From TrEMBL:
Region (Disordered): 1-46
One CC-aspect GO term: cytosol
Source organism superkingdom: Bacteria
Catalytic reactions on record: 9-ribosyl-trans-zeatin 5'-phosphate + H2O = trans-zeatin + D-ribose 5-phosphate; N(6)-(dimethylallyl)adenosine 5'-phosphate + H2O = N(6)-dimethylallyladenine + D-ribose 5-phosphate
Cleavable signal peptide: none
Identification of the protein by name: Cytokinin riboside 5'-monophosphate phosphoribohydrolase
UniProt-listed PANTHER family: CYTOKININ RIBOSIDE 5'-MONOPHOSPHATE PHOSPHORIBOHYDROLASE (PTHR43393)
EC number(s) stated in the UniProt entry for this protein: 3.2.2.n1
A GO molecular function held by the record: cytokinin riboside 5'-monophosphate phosphoribohydrolase activity
Length: 260
């Protein structure tokens, strides 16, 4: 097919154009002194390109691939959250060990954020009981690597990639007393269950003294004002008993297994 002369734009109607792979650059955007290949192969050039958004996309992709590959064969598992600030002589540390051991005895792998404190305690209890102890670490300016009780560990740069792994490879969340990080994971999980992005996924709040105020606020304020319903509040299970927590996890897993 050919265009008639009157259909062909005049030269001044054609903006300057440059191709950068599948990307088209026109007008002022086309003013690049070098090509992508040149910047790649010229080792003497600037290194700022490794911090550009397109390169970050590849890093993000790599984190998902690495996480999926490392965790794909993990058996049924439960993620346990809790404070990195819990000291080893604190009762919550022993509680974490007991919960990790109980999960291992019930046939669940224990997944934590891989850090110190409660996370270390859960990994330790699971590992000592012969279970699979997993830590999904995150790059932070103030914490040093994975705790020594992690048997299978994956480190992440990006919180959202790490969060996906927590949800994808867990059958439940157990939240011990914790701070912003625990609250973040707690409410993200509740949102995903509420919107049916994940199913048969219990969220256990362990420690009525610690979590009772939050639960009461959700009931007396959030639900009272119609922001959530009774079914939404029922997604949370508040307990002080390890056997009760494991029962909730096992029943939800059995319901999920029966549905698949």
């Amino acid at each position: 097919m050919t265009l008639d002369a009157h259909q062909i734009p005049a030269d001044d109607e054609h903006p300057r154009e440059r191709q950068r792979g599948p990307v088209t650059l026109r007008r002022g955007q086309s003013d690049e002194a070098t090509t992508t290949d040149q910047r790649l192969l010229d080792s003497r050039g600037p290194s700022a390109w490794v911090h550009t958004d397109p390169w970050r996309v590849l890093r993000i992709q790599a984190e998902f691939v690495e996480g999926f590959g490392a965790l794909a064969e993990v058996p049924r598992a439960v993620t346990v959250f809790g404070s990195a600030r819990t000291l080893r002589d604190h009762p919550e540390y022993q509680l974490g060990r007991d919960i990790g051991a109980a999960l291992a005895t019930a046939g669940f792998a224990a997944i934590t954020g891989g850090g110190p404190g409660t996370m270390e305690a859960v990994n330790r209890g699971c590992s000592e009981a012969g279970g699979q102890s997993i830590g999904l670490g995150i790059e932070l300016p103030f914490e040093q690597g994975l705790n020594p009780w992690v048997d299978l560990g994956v480190n992440f740069r990006y919180f959202f990639a790490r969060k996906t792994m927590f949800i994808k490879y867990s059958q439940a969340f157990i939240c011990l007393p914790g701070g912003f990080g625990t609250l973040d994971e707690l409410f993200e999980a509740l949102t995903l269950v509420q919107t049916k992005k994940v199913t048969k996924f219990p969220v256990v709040l362990f420690g009525t003294e610690y979590w009772g105020g939050l639960y009461d606020w959700l009931n007396d304020s959030v639900m009272k004002h119609g922001k959530i319903g009774e079914k939404d509040l029922a997604l949370l299970h508040l307990t002080d008993d390890i056997d009760d927590a494991i029962r909730v996890v096992e029943e939800a897993y059995q319901a999920w297994s029966d549905a698949h």
